[in-house]
Amino acid sequence: MRGRAAAVGAVALLALGACANPAATRDPTPEAAPRLTSAPALSPTPVPTVRSPRPDTLHFSVLGDVGATADSRRVLSAVGAAGDAFTLVVGDLSYGAAGAEPAWCDTVKQAVGPHHPVELVAGNHEDHGPNGDIDAFRACLPNRLPGLVGRYGQEWYVDVPAVHPLVRVVMISPALDFGAGEWSYAAGTSHFTWTRDALRSARAAGIPWVVVGMHKPCLSVGVYACDPGADLMNLLLREKADLVVTGHEHMYQRTKRLALGPSCPAVVPGRYDSGCVTGSGGTTFVTVGTGGHELRDVGRSDSEAGYFAAVSARNKDAAFGYLAVDATSRTLDARFRPAAGSTFTDRVSLTR
Hints:
This protein is of the alpha/beta class and 352 residues long. 17% of the residues lie in helices and 21% in strands.
């Protein structure tokens, strides 16, 4: 229904390691997500780390809705040329046939490098099909970041760098079905509690920035309603996630900074409330469904349009590309970088 960056010093090497995370066994029920207190399910992935000082700047990239088109290859080539520390793919990967997952992974690795960490979370095209299976994708694009906690490809978090982290990345799967019903992130569910605890423990650990990734957005000027649910949306605002990245809508859309407070006790999906827009701090939501699959139109009269600061879609400044994110201990800079053939750009800079 709706909707790098400041030049900052030399880039230090990250302690990323290289390890294939074993594919996890799926839950027997949609509410079987591990809690932060569950040691067996949440043991960090045993990737060796090399202790090093905190880098001046951490560079990483985000994209979703990739596919296997000429535009996909242009976007992936741009990502590969950037030399980032890792890349987050927020769902809807190949749009190909079941069984063809390794071929798509090979295409990605040819573009970005065979050892570049391409970190996945599922979309609705590969949660339970129809265009492949997340288990097969994570087998050919395994986790390469040390210390990952949770179920890679579905619900996980990781601190980067592993020593003196600048960013906690939290990846979740609201409204996706891995074979036993859709995962709900409504208040009181295990998935809601897992996400809340992942956010709070990042703050308690003093990690400067929290970035949340998931496939489906809540606020949008595209065609979809708030499938993740208002409870999750307001949890991210209440716990002050800094940047929330999504796909699903085949466009680029960035909100203004949103925050809860006396003038905005909650964001209600489907309507605009100016009291929820803040001039500083807050949470920024960015959809980067521009990885190469066909674009869609923006809804020019969408009821949530007032929340958005920038939009690129098939009928408005059409562009394929990815989000380049630079993090320091004091700033988080996110810039849309268009692939060859596109000119639209956008940038938001957050300061602690």
